[in-house]
């Protein structure tokens, strides 16, 4: 499955660096949780010290302005891709319960998106994110 699927993250380009990194980390955790087959095996160094497993496939990170992010979100949903969302309101919450409540309070088209993660067939992900630039 890993060769046929793709993981991609899109973060809004006007966020400061720590916010972009924070959003990316939270979003990809959703992919790992929903699709455990995307996670590889445990790492081990030459001394026998074990480390946590990571994704067994690349994660591409894109950046986009708010409008392009909204378009990519809509395209991903229209293609029935698995999507994780991070909204502006989540910067002000401190736990998962409040995060879910903040998202639940807003209709899909009105979400103040700052990032999305997308997982699905490679060509469907590519079509949903067509025209976006890789993060620089």
Automatic annotation (TrEMBL):
It comes from the Bacteria. This is DUF2000 domain-containing protein. Gene3D superfamilies: Bit1 (3.40.1490.10). InterPro entries: DUF2000, Pep_tRNA_hydro_II_dom_sf. Pfam families: DUF2000.
């Amino acid at each position: 499955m890993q060769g046929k699927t793709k993981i991609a993250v899109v973060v809004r380009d006007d966020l400061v660096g720590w916010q972009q990194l924070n959003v990316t980390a939270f979003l990809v955790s959703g992919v790992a949780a929903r699709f455990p087959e995307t996670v590889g095996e445990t790492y081990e160094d030459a001394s026998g010290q074990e480390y946590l497993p990571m994704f067994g496939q690349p994660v591409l990170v894109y950046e986009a302005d708010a409008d392009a992010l909204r378009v990519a979100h809509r395209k991903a949903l229209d293609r029935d891709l698995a999507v994780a969302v991070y909204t502006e309101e989540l910067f002000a919450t401190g736990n998962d319960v409040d995060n879910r409540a903040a998202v639940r309070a807003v209709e899909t088209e009105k979400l103040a998106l700052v990032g999305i993660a997308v997982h699905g067939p490679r060509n469907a992900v590519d079509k949903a994110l067509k025209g976006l630039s890789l993060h620089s």
